Request: fold
Amino acid sequence: MALLEIDDIHVFYDKIEALKGVSMSVEEGRIVTLVGGNGAGKSTTLRAVSGLLHPRQGAIRYAGETLGQYGAHEIAAMGLVQVPEGRRIFGRLTVNENLEMGAFTQKNRQQIAEDRERMLTLFPRLRERLRQVAGTLSGGEQQMVATARAMMARPRALLMDEPSMGLSPMMVEQVFETIRTINAQGVTVLLVEQNALLALSIADTGYVMESGRIVLSGSGPELLDDERVRRAYLG
Amino acid sequence: MPTSLAILPRRRQPATPLQRTLGVGLVFGVIGVYLAAVGLLPMLNKRSVIVDTIGLGDATMIAIGLGAGAMAARHAHTRGGATLHGLLAGAVAGAMAAALAVVMQLVSLQSIFIQLSPALFTMLTLGLGLAGGAAVLIGGGAAAGLAGALLRDSPPGGRRIVLAGLGTVVVAGVFQELIQLVLQNAGALTTSASEFFYTWEGLSQQGAAAIFVIAAIIAGLNAMVQRRAAGRVAASERRVRLRRLLRAGILLLLLVCFPLLAGSYIGQVLMLVGLYILMGMGLNLEVGLAGLLDLGFVAFFAVGAYTTALLTADSAHALAALSYWEAMPIAVLLSICVGVIFGIPVLGVRGDYLAVATMGLGEIVRVIVTSDFAAPLLGGAQGVLQIPKPRIGATVLATPVALFYLTLAASAVAAYVAWRLENSRLGRAWMALRDDEDVAQALGVNLIRSKLLAYGLGAAFAGLGGSIFAVMLSSVYPSSFQLLISINVLALIIVGGMGSLPGVVVGSLALIGLPELLREFGEYRYLFYGAVLVIMMRLKPEGLWPSEVRRRELHAGDEAEALDAGADLLPAGQHASSAAE
Ligand SMILES: Nc1ncnc2c1ncn2[C@@H]1O[C@H](COP(=O)(O)OP(=O)(O)O)[C@@H](O)[C@H]1O
Ligand SMILES: [Mg+2]
Reply:
């Protein structure tokens, strides 16, 4: 069975139905991507998985458990950790303090120190900026902080919401490289992107979403070749 | 105003330096005339800075002249220009005051502005008659303006020395009663010092001169030491922390010894300050750390006071006859419970709405206490009387000074708890919630538990304060627990520095202690209070003693600019957009 199963969920913002029956499956150890235009419902899907929103109908199962009964903080403690859209780092805390915040669910000081070291190896740029206030970093560096912060929680699955948003092409490449590295270390990745070309090219499986519904799914290469995907997203 | 500019077809010509200077003079003149017309100047003059020489009102007028000069000098480019502009602005401000005197001479306005009294006229004209007085006002204004401009242009070291001297003289003069009292109680040596500086009525001329010189020398030495330190390596983090600790220690020591010397009135004032410190530390957990804007905070104070009253009072309403030491923990525990219950209905409310919602909850508590429904239990508007003073063994803590030490001990314990909380896991959870609720939760912070704990623990501090408040007054009335208390507590933590423990102490001293010492100015105190709040928020929005994080936040702009200047991976266009996120 897949690590994460989303089964026909319907999510509402008051009366507006943002997700109209979404089903997805994320196998352990893979990179799965969810692509789609602005307002399709990608972030809503991630927020539902994180427990920040609750589906009115349908179920989300993770590692054999139904998530409906858990609060967002419990889901995080279970290893499903989100890197939110727009990074949302703690802007007035230092980089180091941001990382410590990420380790909130962890109790072992020694292990936290090791994790931090691993993150600084993954993002050498952050090492020079450990004592700097995170709000003063560039967009690309802030994305590094947001990713490293999430990784400090020792996720089993990382939920990334548009990590490439607003970054320069060079930075974007670096972000995708990082995603691959993280995945290679054994972390399952659910990647939400508007940049379908790049996302599908690193993903094992892809889902295409339009107005709250999954309209297409398949392996990454399959979707990249699909005429409809090309027309809609790859221009 | 961008909107009006958008409507106007063309931008107005920028003002010439001369126009600006005249404008500055007029504005400062209007301030002076206003202060005179509302009666503040003659009122201030009741307190002298230097006996038979300068009153506080006169000092204020001089300060207005100095301010006008300093402000006008800002626009000038050359040294000579600056002095000239300062002179002019001061003269204009003085002329406005002279004009007021002329108008008062010509028409009697006292039926409309009751404060435009003959006494004010005499004060403005220094008793020299209209012509002489007007000349002195304009001349004096010009001189003050010139001095202000020169001060502004002088090197910072020199400026600091002069300002320190002047400031110390003003403080020594205005608070002469208190200072004399302390000096005379402290010992033979200080008594003779007091006799040197002060006459029976206040600061003497020789005393003022001596104090000016001493303060200036100290400021000069201090500046020298600092410059030398800066010349070496930048002070290490440990040094900075040590210095801060030292400052806090000195402040604390003063606070501890002071009431013993200053007597029971000061004891009472400081005790009030202590109560506000307790409440401030509590609200600081809620607002400063957890970001929960709470205007119903007084409710917890009331719970602590009423619980103590009902458990210890010798009255018909009493539920038990416990000793104070038994009642106080119960009062604190009950406050925690009420805090948690209070938090439940507003859990999902954020930001501004939270302020209004909590204000409503606070009012509900007050209304319940006053209601007929609860009157049999809580005593209604008559309150609960005859609360015994706490005793330790055979000693009764009856005097204000003794109760101050009780407050101090409670504050010390509370400060320790607050400090530990700040650096705990819970403290980090609060900070994360304050900055971003969603992200905090997504990182594993339990929103409901953390928020309710913030309300509960914040309430504990207020409950402890309320408990002491009850024994201080020996009675509790519902009318004591007004919304104004919540607002005062909020104001003091903002002025002190949001999220900063020493800030709470400084804020309480400034906003609660100082106005008490200015009691004779009656309602004008609140004019002062309001003006201080506005000026503070303009000049030092991070507070008098800000926390590290807060300081960073308000000065993050400067650092960001410095960084932007450096190389970055982003192309220029995209950089701006990502910074705006
Ligand atoms: N907080 C909200 N309140 C109401 N509607 C929302 C809210 N957030 C998103 N929506 C709506 O839900 C739909 C899906 O949004 P979202 O999941 O953010 O899309 P995406 O991430 O794919 O751009 C959009 O129509 C959006 O307008
Ligand atoms: Mg989105």
